[in-house]
Amino acid sequence: MAEYRDAIEIAAAPETVFEYLTTEEGMTAWMGQCADLDPRPGGRFAVDITGHPVRGEFLHVESPTRVVVSWGLAGNEDLPAGASTVEFRLTRIADGTRVDLRHSDLPDLDVPGHADGWANFLPRLAIAGAGGDAGQDDWRPLPR
Predict the structure, then answer these.
(1) How many CB atoms neighbour CB 38 within 10 A?
(2) Would you call 92 helix, strand, or coil by DSSP?
(3) Does residue 64 have a cis bond before it (omega within 30 degrees)?
């Protein structure tokens, strides 16, 4: 199994960015067409991204510094619902918030596709988190 890491800076306080990781309205402002979230340990994490049903649960929720969810695709044999882990760490910095992302327990063959997805979605989080409009999302997954 492998992991992917990245980081971004957002011109907003951690308390604001945290809302974009734990509310349906916040999540869909930067990723997914619809979301059904229950942000407490054991709570539901469901986001539909370009017709792909990402499913898992919230594993750790510590406002406003850390969100950890299990992540996978409903009906997918290679990365089933909840099979991998996504961690967001939010750190206050002078100009806002640094978000460190770690997506772990990924099958080796899935790393390039998830890296491509996060390269699309993290900049959208930076825009939305700072109060901007990330616009329409035309991202499509890479073929495996």
Answers:
(1) 14
(2) strand
(3) yes
Q: Model's pTM, two decimal places?
A: 0.96
Other beta carbons within 10 Å of 27: 23
Question: Which residues lie below 8 Å from residue 61, measured CB to CB, with a gap of 6+?
Answer: 22, 39, 40, 41, 43, 67, 68
Do 88 and 67 meet the contact criterion of CB atoms below 8 Å apart? yes
Read off the pLDDT of residues 114-141 as tens digits, 9 standing for 90 and up: 999 999 999 999 999 999 999 999 898 8
Q: Please say whether the beta carbons of 9 and 95 come within 8 A.
A: yes
Check if the beta carbon of residue 53 is closer than 8 Å to that of residue 46.
yes
Cα 9 to Cα 3, 97, 101, distances in angstroms: 21, 6, 11
**H or E, element range at 112:** helix 111-129
Q: Is 141 exposed, middle or buried (0-12, 13-18, 19+ CB in 10 A)?
A: middle
The number of C-alpha atoms within 13 Å of 58 and in the hemisphere containing its C-beta is 18
